[in-house]
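Lab notebook, entry 474. We have the chain sequence and a SMILES string for zinc ion, and the next step in the workflow is to get a structural model of the bound complex before anyone spends time on docking refinements. Request logged below.

Task: model protein plus zinc ion, output structure tokens.
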Amino acid sequence: MPTIEAAFRLRVAFPLFVCSFVGIALACNDSPVRPHVVLISVDTLRADHVGAWGYERATTPTLDTLASRSVRFSNAISHASWTLPSHMSVMTSLRPSVHGVSTQRSLAPEAITLAETLKGVGYRTAAFVSWVYVGKSFGFGQGFDSFRTLIRPGRVEMGAGGGAHSARQIVDVVVDWLDHDPVDPLFLFVHLFDPHSDYDPPREYSEMFDPDYAGSLDGRFDTLTKFNRYLDAPAQDLPRRDLEHIEALYDAEIRYVDDQLARLLQALDEQLGLDNCLIVFTSDHGEEFMDHGSMEGHGWSLYEEVLHVPLLVKLPNAEWAGSVVTNPVGLIDIAPTILNWIGVDPPAAFEGTSLAGLIEGRDETHTPQYVLSENDRWNIKRRSIRGSRYKLIITEDTGVNTAGVPVRAGIELFDLREDAGEQHNLYEPEDPRSQALVSLLEKMSASPASPSNNPEVEISPEQTELLRSLGYVE
Ligand SMILES: [Zn+2]
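Result returned:
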């Protein structure tokens, strides 16, 4: 199996780098030599199941090696709890309530995307995605010269994400494309879906982390809904041994994707040279495994198991390799960081902040210190702010959710330093700290005028059926 250690060893220097990288556009402003930019998102990957984030199982040898060559952001936070708004926040550097994209509304044409901006400075832009909610129907194609959504037509049964192609198939397509379509410079977006439910890893991985399980529970979405308090109240208890098995299946999916990432990185090195690439690796959200008493996956809550995601920035020539930034950062910071690093001014509309200052140890340049996340789905409305120590979550009273389960209003305050699992709510209405954080959340979530005239989504009956099969639509 290819390893990226070998790939990294192959390249020792980028011969075109005669000027320092950060100042590249200034020092070489006649004809800037810009690196390839590669953005990789593995769906549904919670940070604490990645080795570089301290996980004890061997889920991510490839990512761990990549982390050693990257700047690792140990506290990266998603702005939404599910695929569509989270990925759109990455692409637009706008939080969900500002980009306005939902199951009903696609991206406003006047919104500016990372791909458009890179295309505007001479990049060839290409995307390979594996799920409807990262597809053209919602505006993700904006700015891409080439955009392929790799979903098996007409296939609605469970497995490999209920219709999404597996990571192996997608990497095959990307590798073939790289082989036949050399471009310079390139912005490549690759989205892999496998850790998303169903937890149904390929056969050779399925017993990797739990070979002794003798129970009967499988990792299908349909099987697990009865343990989700938002879909089936009161939810059933999930026996501990069965829970361990489900997590082992999830971990096996992660390991499978990680092995495919090794193939992708190998191909990138052969075709482009990893030292010539700025690679950003992240996920759109995590996954909940009874951390808060419910087998609810994602899309409902704003706890850390859902919002805390991996974020690696592998700079050209592996600059700042091995650095770790512990400040909380948001995924809307990715696009301005990429642009800043290649010497392009981020569009004024972007809400995120370049992380270049944090990478170079100038953390005073980074504001805000809290990351805002939003959940507005299935008639559950939540907002949270997450700082380096404290986190506040406000849930609105919406009566019942779309499954008819009551939703109670509430405010939760957690001290993540003392209570990383968010089990002890410290909120007190009269407590000055509680009051200050509520004020901060309200201030941070006061939206400027939305860019939106978000057009209505046009989605095929086939895709609607796919989404229904995974519980996304009724
Ligand atoms: Zn997702």
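Notes for the group: The radius of gyration is 21 Å. Worth checking against the assay data. The chain has one domain: 33-368+448-469.
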